[in-house]
Amino acid sequence: xxxxxxxxxxxxxxxLTAELSVPEGARVAVMGPSGAGKSTLLGAIAGFLPLTRGxxxxxxxxxxxxxxxxxxLSILFQDHNLFPHLSLFDNVALGLDPSxxxxxxxxxxxxxxxxxxxxxxxxxxKPAQLSGGQIGRAGLARVLLRARPLIxxxxxxxxxxxxxxxxxxxxxxxxxGETGATLLMITHDPEDARLLSDQILVVAEGQAxxxxxxxxxxxxxxxxxxxxxxx
Length: 231
Ligand SMILES: Nc1ncnc2c1ncn2[C@@H]1O[C@H](COP(=O)(O)OP(=O)(O)OP(=O)(O)O)[C@@H](O)[C@H]1O
Description:
- Keywords: ATP-binding, Cell inner membrane, Cell membrane, Membrane, Nucleotide-binding, Translocase, Transport.
- It holds the Pfam family ABC_tran.
- Residues 2-230 form the ABC transporter domain.
- This is Thiamine ABC transporter ATP-binding protein.
- One of its GO terms (molecular function) is ATP hydrolysis activity.
- By secondary structure, the chain is α/β, with parallel strands linked by helices.
- The protein folds into 2 domains: 1-72 and 150-231, Rossmann fold; 83-147.
- It has helices at 38-46, 88-93, 104-116, 132-146, 162-179, 190-196, 214-219, 223-229; strands at 2-11, 14-22, 27-31, 53-58, 61-62, 73-76, 150-154, 182-186, 199-204, 207-208, 212-213.
- Strands 1, 2, 3, 4, 5, 6, 7, 8, 9, 10 and 11 form an 11-stranded mixed beta sheet that branches.
- α3 (104-116) crosses α4 and α4 runs parallel beside α5 (162-179).
């Protein structure tokens, strides 16, 4: 279980509070108006932004005091955190060891992750020589390889076309299913939420609300979500 207890994050004049829990293995879509604080929330969980108040716990242990790399999670952004000068193999391998000094078992694990995400044969390519979908897969290969229990997605597939985005979401679903990971995914698209999430966490009016079941929330959205969805 991921728990935010009396959490507050401040950024310039912006302030977000969160009092909520996400059960282990849940798939949660994070939705809300632009500028409402969705990325701020994920950034605080990942450790890029400090809390000004409260605590974050994973399985009852405090994680908000840990450095980002020591937290039990992987985060994926729209740029997929790929380094342009590194090969696909090395970009994925960074998920295991930032110094890239891999032993044979680790090298094999990288190859397996590339294989499972449909990237075999492209190991030596640089990111600039990959398509948008392949870059999306590379980010997911790294997430798969890291095998952390919490996966945070900050709109990594927003720039992809609908068919490719559905493919990526299916792959995310498969990875989460295989690893039992808990998923928090920012999206502006209710269709993404329906496809992948069982719960929606609404971020609006300075507050991140506890997750509620996807179907019920989309059918009868609270005013802030209804205004945002245009329903
Ligand atoms: N570095 C910063 N310094 C000051 N304020 C910031 C900074 N980054 C973001 N903000 C503000 O914090 C608020 C929340 O931003 P955030 O990016 O979390 O929103 P979001 O819900 O993810 O938006 P979007 O859907 O547009 O990506 C916004 O009002 C934004 O202007």
